[in-house]
Amino acid sequence: MRFYGKIINGWEGVLRGSALVSKKRISFLGDVDPKTGRIRANDSDITGEEIGGKVLIFKGGRGSTVGAMVIYALKKNNKAPLAIITVETDPVVVSGAIFSNIPAISEVSENILSKIKSNQEVRIYPRKKLAVIEVI
Predict the structure, then answer these.
(1) Which residues are catalytic?
(2) Residue of 23, 55, 48 lying closest to 33 (CA atoms)
(3) How confident is the prediction along the chain (136 residues), in pLDDT tens digits per residue?
(4) Which of 43, 47, 91, 120 is the most buried if burial means most Cβ atoms within 10 Å?
(5) Do residues 49 and 81 touch, judged by C-beta distance below 8 A?
(6) Domain count within the chain
(7) What pTM does this model have?
(8) What is the CATH number of the domain that holds 17?
């Protein structure tokens, strides 16, 4: 299974990690604990999960511009995702990923939210201006 997306914040080489998939939008301000990386929003489909070191795949961001600083705090606390993949591009998520130097991909087919399951291993690599996302 293979998906393609636009590289928002690039990296070199191949990334491998466990997927954490949410079909919902995430507000980093409020939904995510910046100290633990745990999803704390009661209405989330991944409540209680930790995003640190995971390939975080979700519909897109929502909420406050302060969310970019929460992403930065996650990075400083070693609780940031390995990579961020979204269906819809959001300026808060984009700026947070860039400030924090987290690989970020957007404009991925919405099918990714139902085809890739949490805990599946994925491999991500750049190909020109696109990212390739594969289930291992």
Answers:
(1) 64
(2) 48
(3) 999 999 999 999 999 999 999 999 999 999 999 999 999 999 999 999 999 999 999 999 998 889 999 999 999 999 999 999 999 999 999 999 999 999 999 999 999 999 999 999 999 999 988 999 999 9
(4) 120
(5) no
(6) 1
(7) 0.96
(8) 3.50.30.10
